[in-house]
């Protein structure tokens, strides 16, 4: 599923490396370097998962975890730490973390855990999304249309995933921008419109993506081209 992540990590090189690797899988991520900034960012933005380093400046990672976990509307928490003992893992989970990953880690495992955490909030959705002849596998990063493989850019993949997740519901341009881009995205940009246009072209005719005027975009059972 499309995932927007908050990376809470004070090691700048590692944080940048994680964000770069996530971007390769069409996962948008923001970075903060301390606990106070983490709580502020989580209160402002709609994140799906917080990748939380346990030992960070300011408000300690344990307290950040405890505060976020107390809110039933908070994002999932994947705690990240160099301490990998059983007691450390149990302690992190008892604080309210949803999962725990020790440093050093392999990026494929990190991405799989992030997607698994996000999928829990979409319990009615299967791992592979299908609608109107389009099949999207988020783990293999594959899209087929009527059995034909289609190559999509990262943002195109992320937007298509969001539309398929909605199961026929309308997704606003604002939601697409928030989920598929990061906090640096210009809210007045036409990136969403351009990406939708590119998706329609690559998925072929007749277009399965309809525009609901003044509302957003949808993949319905009988979608009309706009």
UniProtKB/TrEMBL annotation:
Alphabetically ordered keywords of this record: DNA-binding, Phosphoprotein
List of residues that carry 4-aspartylphosphate: 53
Coiled coil regions, renumbered to chain: none
Superkingdom classification of source: Bacteria
UniProt keyword DNA-binding present: yes
Record-annotated OmpR/PhoB-type domain positions: 126-221
Biological process, per Gene Ontology: regulation of DNA-templated transcription
Record-level GO cellular component terms: cytosol; protein-DNA complex
DNA-binding region: 126-221
Ranges where the Response regulatory domain occurs: 4-118
One of the record's GO molecular function terms: transcription cis-regulatory region binding
One Pfam entry name: Response_reg
Electron transport keyword on record: no
Identification of the protein by name: Two-component system response regulator VanR
Source species of the chain: Microterricola gilva
